[in-house]
Amino acid sequence: MLREAMRIKIVAPVITDQFNRAIEEEARQFIDADSIIEIENIQHGAASIESAYDEALNIPDVLKMVLQAERDGFDAVFIDCFGDPGVDAAREVVSIPVVGGFQPAILTACLLTHYFSIITVLPSVLPLLRVLIRKQGIGENVASIRSVNIAVLDLSDSEALRNSLASEAEKAVHEDGAEGIVLGCTGMLGLARSLEAELAGRGISMPVVDPTGAAIGFLQSLHRNALCHSKRTYPFPPDKERNIGG
Is 185 within 8 Å of 152 (Cβ atoms)? Predict the structure, then answer.
């Protein structure tokens, strides 16, 4: 029986498209040869998500785009942010799989190691990640959350980012007891394997989880197995008057 090519919509939950080409190149490394991806940015909100305020501003457009993706016949949606902005709400309003960067990455890390560290962008993101960790119930698995203190919009300086990641990862191992690393921003593109190799050169053998790869791989697995989120967990919202603007 021939299986139709999977169509994945990547919702970039920011108003800037400066990372789109790199996001698409990264995602294509992890999709099946016959799978189709399409990336699109939100129109209203912030240029990056580095606070709860940014997240709140950007979620309304994210939800509109997820709804449109289902109407357009996409099989799944990847909300391309480690903070999972709007993921729970999106699952309520559609019947296709929706993931962000956080859940697939940390659940992959839980399968590979008992104790791992997350390395993210700015200190302002740490409170948001602590909330997600508590919600997921994996506090005992997280050795630490560290930051490279580089803003999302400055991540294109790959050499500075690579050096900071290696430094923080080594500290996570020696100071926090980490046995694995999760890259805590989907904007840390194309660095997981090089960081793994850098750590190996320093005598540290451990997995580094790329959130984009984990998300795309998870969506493909769900598609192959004809699985989606439970509508008992994420029921459709009750009908009522709603003024959502736009």
Answer: yes
DSSP string, 9-56: EEEE-SS--TTHHHHHHHHHTTS-TT-EEEEEE-SSS-SS--SHHHHH
Please say whether the beta carbons of 106 and 130 come within 8 A: no
Nearest 5°: the CA angle 223, 137, 168 is 90
Cα–Cα distance between 27 and 21 in angstroms, integer?
A: 10
Quick count: other Cβ atoms within 10 Å of Cβ 162? 17
Q: How far is 227 from 203, CA to CA, in rounded Å?
A: 40
Angstrom distance (rounded) from CA 212 to CA 43: 22
**pLDDT tens for each residue of 15-67:** 999 999 999 999 999 998 889 999 999 999 999 999 999 999 999 999 999 99
- Considering only CA atoms, which of 220, 189, 216 is closest in space to residue 25? 189
- Contact (CB, 8 A) for 143 and 178: yes
Q: Cα-atom radius of gyration of the chain, to the nearest Å? A: 18
Q: What is the pLDDT of residue 4?
A: 75
3-class secondary structure, 165? helix
Of residues 212, 219, 149, the one with CA closest to residue 185: 212
Q: Model-level pTM greater than 0.85?
A: yes
The chain-wide mean pLDDT, for the chain, equals 95
Tokens 């190691």 map to which residue? 113
Give the burial class of 134: count Cβ atoms within 10 A of its Cβ; 0-12 exposed, 13-18 middle, 19 or more buried: exposed
